[in-house]
Amino acid sequence: MPVDRATRQAWLIWATVVAVYVAALFHRTSLGVASLEAGERFGVGPAALGTFTVLQIGLYAAMQIPTGLLVDRFGPRRMLVTAALLMGTGQVLFALAHSYPLGLAARAVLGVGDAMTWVSVLRVAAAHFPPNRYTVVMSLSAALGGAGNLVATVPLTLLLAHAGWTVTFLITGAGTAVYAAVVAWRVRETPDGVSLPEPERVSPRAVLTRVGEAWRTPSTRLGFWLHFTSMVTPAVLGWLWGFPYLVEGEGLGRAEASAVLSMLVVVAIVAGPVMGAVIARYPASRMTIVAWFVVAGVVCWSVLLLWPGGFVPTPLLYVVFGVLSVGAPISGVAFAIVRDYNPMHRVGTATGVANVGGFGAVTIVALSVGVVLDLVGARTGPGAYRIAFLPAVAVFLFGALRMAVWWRRARAAVFAAESRGETVPVRLRRRRWDVLADA
């Protein structure tokens, strides 16, 4: 049963697990400002450089459903300990790697550890906080995780310049691995006096059945496409291609480019808790907020791709990157929807299903941009990047279309449940564009 209130112990446990998520965000995005150095260190071009992110994020996406099942089976504490150890090991290997294959192997290890983090954090929040606080806690988690993104911009750029590649990544990797002991010591699966049913051992067929049940829930499918659409743009720019675009495409210095890139983090950190509080107070309006972000995203991409005269004015780049950053906290709406419409024993699995959406989209776009840049050839000036970013726009628009379809279907499922006399988590008001029955 859900808890009635958040205790001091709940907040301490939450702070402990969020620190793992901060580390995950740092490691995940550390290649963003180190991408040019990585190209020189491993002697590779844009497509091969993009493979680092594609491999890491592709593994992340592939691991989401298994991670959800593992969290449901073994609990978030064990998964977070394993995640910290794997991320630390992967970053240490990356620090010592001098060959491209070893660098890929290191990012793969890091990606597997990263994949175990967010679903586990959300499961801890679901167990320790009442439903009416879940959205706020989730938004705070995402915002604080953004601190990892922030450290991976200007501070990491300065550290790389002064300490060098090996020392920088050795320190961050070792620190993450050691933190696993803190997680093992501090984290509890459930609040004191509350117990969950002993997880049953399930057969592969039962696993597929559980995934199928989650996937057939319209709100899970909506969460998948919402995450797909809202996350792809800030992730692709922040994790890999934003920094090269600003330096090579827009002609900014490295320090200025890092500052612009930091807007993806700073604005998200500020907007996340505010958005979480608004959505918690007005849950029926959360998809309307998502729809407005999609409109803003179309405007921002139009500025980057169609600005007359080529180079976008630097002040406008700050604004565009700041607006696009809101996609990160917006993507968290997917998990709130998933939690509302799935039973607790299936929340981990359903969250994993939804989480595949955004990371699958990022995998596709990160590779596509690198391949197009290789085909175009010259990377100086905005022209090459305008062409290379076309796949990102196509994926964004496709996701928005599918999200709109499943928004209507999820609403229809809610209205159908109400007509059967069932209690629904969020009461919705019918609109003229609503379908009459669950499709």
Automatic annotation (TrEMBL):
The chain crosses the membrane at residues 12-30, 42-63, 79-98, 104-125, 137-161, 167-187, 224-247, 259-282, 289-310, 316-338, 350-373, 385-405. Keywords: Membrane, Transmembrane, Transmembrane helix. Residues 13-411 form the Major facilitator superfamily (MFS) profile domain. This is MFS family permease. Gene3D superfamilies: MFS general substrate transporter like domains. The keyword Membrane applies. It is a multi-pass membrane protein. GO terms for molecular function: transmembrane transporter activity. The keyword Transmembrane applies. It is found in: Cell membrane. It comes from Saccharothrix violaceirubra. InterPro entries: MFS (IPR011701), MFS_dom (IPR020846), MFS_trans_sf (IPR036259). Its main location: membrane. One of its GO terms (cellular component) is plasma membrane.
